[in-house]
Amino acid sequence: MAAAASSAEVASLAEMTRIDAPSADHSTASLLPRRVAQAEALAWTGPVPPRVETHLAKLMTQAARYKSINQVPGSPGMFDVGSLSNTSVKRRVKMSKDAFTPPECCAYALTKGFPCYHGAAVIMQQYGAANMHKFVDKKHHTAAWKAVYEGATNEVPGQHVVDGIMLAAKKLVLSGDYLHHPKAIPP
Ligand SMILES: [Zn+2]
Questions:
Q1: 0.90 cut: is pTM over it?
Q2: How far is the CA of 27 from the centre of ligand 1 (A)?
Q3: Domain ranges of the chain
Q4: Which element (helix H / strand E) includes 91?
């Protein structure tokens, strides 16, 4: 039983690692044309994109299973979370003093910008599920997602603009100012 629970946990963490840097991929409409994905991103008002919301919902479902969460005496911000797969093992979770930083725990929490299950369990107990996104790296937030699209344009410049640039370039060439002078006069 313990081994099965543990491998399920590992598989689930592997699933979690699929969300990484901000990209159009955070959109639920990732298979739709870019213009549609862009519209979705720019209109989105939630603190995190839809795909990150889904990820956090799964994370919280798993984290809610951890019941043994105890503050370490004399160490504010430190918690021991009992492992689900092995009751004799405790995970030490250290809350960060910085905003938008996952609690320190296993390697997952240090590299992915999301709390691990243990960190998420502490956040739910201490701050409530509604505050989970405040412990998620800024790169996973809606602002970063929007930034992928803001200022991006799919429009090609008008023909008169292209013509103007070509004409200006031709004039420069014809003026000779930009031609290199020969280095030596031929004999
Ligand atoms: Zn952990």
A1: no
A2: 27
A3: 2-157
A4: strand 90-94
